[in-house]
Structure formats: structure tokens, C-alpha cells
Predict the 3D structure of the following.
Amino acid sequence: MITLALSKGRIFEETLPLLKAAGIEVTEDPETSRKLILATNRDDVRVVLVRATDVPTYVQHGGADLGVAGKDVLIEHGGQGLYQPLDLRIAKCRMSVAARADFDYAAAVKQGSRLRIATKYTNVARQHFADKGVHVDLIKLYGSMELAPLTGLADAIVDLVSTGSTLKANQLVEVEKIMEISSRLVVNQAALKLKREPIRRLIDVFSNAIPQR
Ligand code: PRT
Ligand code: MG
């Protein structure tokens, strides 16, 4: 049995075409079913649904053989014990710094001001500002980062941006791009040895089915 860990939503949706290329069809819809283990048309493949941030943990500890996780999630997790053979180029977005339109980020950086940065991505943020030589106080949040600059909790946020409409709706502007983000295939290292053939085959098919945009 091969167990694949996916999160509901965009990662599940965007992984489906890759699975299809491998002849795998998930026979239940995660949006309507309450099941956390989903069967497929293949007796030897199943999908487990976990929170996006839990995918690396499941795969690292063998709760799943493979998984699909965003680069954002992998950097924060650290990637220990994970083989990362493929950038699947799905669930694309970017990690950026955003602030209120009336906050002069460039000037604050230039003056060497200490910035309060709210984010879920403390590892990425710490590294980014250290590289720039900017002193920051990091405020760890678990969601709704956009609210932080609006309430005075922080000067700026580090968050994912795709269309930009969430920032716009909250009168925030993207002031700096940090990195491009996409999702990777992650594989448990022991599974790679014990189930080498079926896992290799999956990696090969996925690799040929990756969107080229
Ligand atoms: O949503 P939930 O709390 O259940 O979990 P999650 O946010 O961890 O999962 P999910 O499914 O939302 O995201 C899974 C992965 O998709 C992330 O780890 C990213 O690698 C990737 N991804 C791609 C995104 C986005 N695009 C994205 N736009 N993840 C989140 N967003 C959010 C962003 O945080 C912001 O709130 O969407 C909002 C911005 O979108 P725009 O289009 O308004 O700019
Ligand atoms: Mg989300």
C-alpha cells in the first residue's frame, strides 16, 4: 500500500491531474465526505487528508509514504528526513512583505528603524531581514496576518500573495517580494527504500506530467 498525504483545497485539486496521469483516481470528494482516508481506483494507493502544515510531519514519521507540500511549509518545517525529488510547480504564489499604503517601508529600512513584523513564516522572515541587515521583532501569528498592520500590532507582514486581492481588500500593498513558492513532492526516506519500485514509478510519471507554465 502506498499512502499519499494531501491537504484539502488547492493542493488536493492541483495534484489530481498528476495522479490521473499515473492512472490514479480518488473515488471520494474531500469537500463533501468527512472521511480522512480516501480510497482510489487502485487497491494499492490511498490518500490521507491532513492540514497543509502537517504534511511534512506525516511523511517524515512514516504516517504517509509521500506527500505534497508548499515550499513555504517545507522551509518552516525544516525538511528533516524528507526526500524532495520534484518541484511539482502547482499551488504557485509568492512570499512577500506587505504594509499599509501610508507606511513608508523603504524609508523605514533606509533609516535603520527596528520593524515589527507579524507572520506565520518566522523562519523565512528571520532569514530575509537578517540578509538585508534589517532589525526586526517577529510576532508569530497563525492566520489573518493582514489584520496586524491595520490594528497597529505590526508595521508589516510576511505572507503569501497570489492574485493580490486579499491585500487590496485590506488596503495593504506588497512592498517587497521574498521568494517564489510552489509545491514539492516529499517522500519518506525509509519508504523510498522499502517501496522503491512503485514510488520510483510515481515520481517518473509525476515528473512528466508537471505543468510547464
Ligand atoms: O487554509 P488553511 O488554514 O486550512 O491551511 P493553509 O493555508 O495552510 O492551506 P491552503 O490549502 O490554503 O494552502 C496550501 C498551500 O498552498 C500553501 O502552503 C502555499 O504553498 C499554497 N498557496 C498558493 C497558497 C496561496 N497560493 C495563497 N494565496 N496558500 C495560501 N494563500 C493565501 C494567502 O495566505 C493569503 O491569505 O491566500 C491569500 C492571498 O491570496 P490572494 O489571491 O488574495 O493574493
Ligand atoms: Mg489557507
